Amino acid sequence: MFKKILVPVDGSEGSWRALDTAVELGKKFGGELHVINVIQPYNNAALLAVPLDHATVSQGNSELEKIGDKVLEMAQERLSTYEGETKFSLEVGHPSERIIAMAKKTGADAIVIGSRGLSGIAEFFLGSVSSKVAQYANVPVLIVK
């Protein structure tokens, strides 16, 4: 039933609970887990109000990539005893858009995502990533509280 499960993680407690839930589903159905971390680069309209040079923006993006890689390393450690296949990738872009695109690209049968992540105030203005994923994904989405 769920042979390929996409699990976005951002290092928040909610994303680790989602990963744990995905592991249980993966064990039950013999599924492959594809774990992704999505970083949103510094290119927001809010930054237009503050003059930043290219080097500053690039340095900020580099730091975000390092954090994303660390989150994926933590996910690998958590999955060290998982007997099914696991894949890990770092994506760059808007989180909900990249999650949906990766679900299509990987042929995921389901997405397991935490109900709240680290997006903070952006959720208040833009709507949560999990609700956007649930609304626009073409596969079942399990939102873990």
How are the SSEs ordered, and which strands pair?
Layout: E1 4-8, H1 13-29, E2 32-39, H2 54-78, E3 86-92, H3 95-106, E4 110-114, H4 121-126, H5 129-136, E5 141-144
Parallel strand pairs: 1-2, 1-4, 2-3, 4-5
Overall geometric form? globular
How many β strands by DSSP?
A: 5
CATH architecture: 3-Layer(aba) Sandwich
How is the main sheet built? 5 strands, parallel
Rg calc: 15 Å
Regarding CATH, which class?
Answer: Alpha Beta
CATH level 3 topology: Rossmann fold
Q: Assembly type of the shown chains? A: single chain
The total domain count is 1
**Going by CATH, what is the homologous superfamily?**
HUPs
Strand content: 15-25%
Question: What does the average pLDDT come to?
Answer: 86
End-to-end distance: 23 Å
- Which stretches are poorly predicted, pLDDT < 50 over at least 5 residues? 121-127
**Largest sheet: spatial strand order:** 3-2-1-4-5
Percent helix = 40-55%
- Pattern of helices and strands: EHEHEHEHHE
The SS-based structural class is: alpha/beta
User: DSSP helix count?
Assistant: 5
InterPro entries: Rossmann-like_a/b/a_fold, Universal_stress_UspA, UspA
Family: Belongs to the universal stress protein A family.
Domain UspA: 1-145
Protein name: Universal stress family protein
